[in-house]
Amino acid sequence: MTKRSGLIGTKIGNSSYHNVAGKSLPVTIIKIDDCIVSNIKTKEKDGYTSVQLASINGKKEIKKVKKPQQKIFANLKINPKKIIKEFRIDPENLLEIGTSINVSHFKQNQFVDVTSTSIGKGFAGAMKRHNF
To answer: What distances in angstroms separate CA 2 from CA 90, 91, 93, 112, 117, one per listed residue?
Structure first.
């Protein structure tokens, strides 16, 4: 199984999908913005092969972005992005810096792995559970 680059997205909500047989399947709806390749790491230079993606417009002013990230966005001549993530890939799947990828990057009926970060709920759950 070859490793390909992933995408960065935002969960919108949940829904259900009805297939041809009439069976209802739960699905998660994810909004995928265009991801731009901001850096490439190679085995010769860094010891491993990966692609760094920047996505989701969020930060408005370049002054509010940290200096190392300012350099990345200035070289690409794009507006600052909110999220930068790195995906380890196989050397034959390298992309060029500045390449924009979206959902068409995946093949039809291809399985994907999804990771996420949940929002912390703090101490409220224990308070409700134990009535204090």
So the answer is: 7, 10, 9, 12, 25
Task: Give the Cα separation of 76 and 121 in Å (integer).
Answer: 38
Q: CA–CA separation, 61 vs 73, rounded Å?
A: 12
CB of 32 closer than 8 Å to CB of 104: no
DSSP codes joined into one string, 97-129:
TT-EE-GGGSPTT--------PPP-TTHHHHHH
Can you tell me the distance from the alpha carbon of 101 to that of 108, in angstroms, rounded to the nearest whole number? Answer: 16
Confidence at residue 51, expressed as pLDDT on a 0 to 100 scale: 92
pLDDT digits (tens, 9 = 90+) for 23-45: 999 998 888 888 889 889 999 99
Six-digit token string for 20: 């041809």
Q: Which of 91, 82, 94 is nearest to 39 (CA)?
A: 94
pTM beyond 0.85: the answer is no
The DSSP secondary-structure symbol of 48 reads S
The separation between CA 46 and the C-alpha centre of its own chain, rounded to angstroms, equals 22
Please report the sign of the dihedral spanned by the C-alpha atoms of residue 91, residue 53, residue 45, residue 112.
negative
